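Protein Record: Sequence and Backbone Structure Tokens
======================================================
Tokens: labelled as protein backbone structure tokens, with as many entries as the chain has residues.
Task: work out the structure tokens from the sequence, keeping to the layout shown below.
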Amino acid sequence: MVDQVSKDAVKNAFSKSAHSNVDLYYEMIDKDFARYLEKHNVQLSDVERNRLKAYMWATVATENDRCKPSEERINHINTNMWQVPEVVQNKTGAHLKFKDVPLFQPGDGRYHLIGFPFDKYDGRMKNSSAGDGNKYRGRGFVQITGRENYMRYGPLAGIPALVEQPDLASDPRNASKILVAFILDKHNRDRILSSLAEDDLVKAREVVNGRNPHGVAKFSESYSKITSPSKKGPSSHPQHESTPKGGAAPTLRRT
């Protein structure tokens, strides 16, 4: 049985440093959730509603432990790798050896970017034009990525201009609506509820992240903390992602 998903229950899934952002955005997202159900005449039982809310917040906690809309940063997942030259001595003398680095800091002369920012997204998710990977990079609470998703979830969220103005997805008010539209879109909603009814959190996670295993353990932990708040106290330590800070693993990216 899923407990009522309250603000305090949601805070259990986040580090204390993010609680002020949960306070700031919880009511807005909760109201957008209710508005979507009413506008689209979605009929849910109390259990289904709470399961979807718990899933939504556990996903935010997994992808964005600051609980704040953000933009995807350049990293090895989205951009052809940059390398750092390192002088290495061997029997034949000094030569340059290149090694991969996890983050790219603009303006740092040590880094050499191969290709263009977010160029690994070009040619995928209906990113058909040069630069679409950058234009439709990840934005929001859990990052919407790719022209295909901007085309689909913009109208569902009531933001028809999203494809022409993708930066709109970074506005907290729009990010809230996009998050809710993704979770409550019928195709996604049915898959999420079916998986949660079977207590299959790995399968439920695939709705957001495909078969990429990133974040399954964190998602499962967060979902448990939200749905059973009496058993789990608020986290006192920041959560750490296995991917570079500010560059979440592919999210809301069905290719």
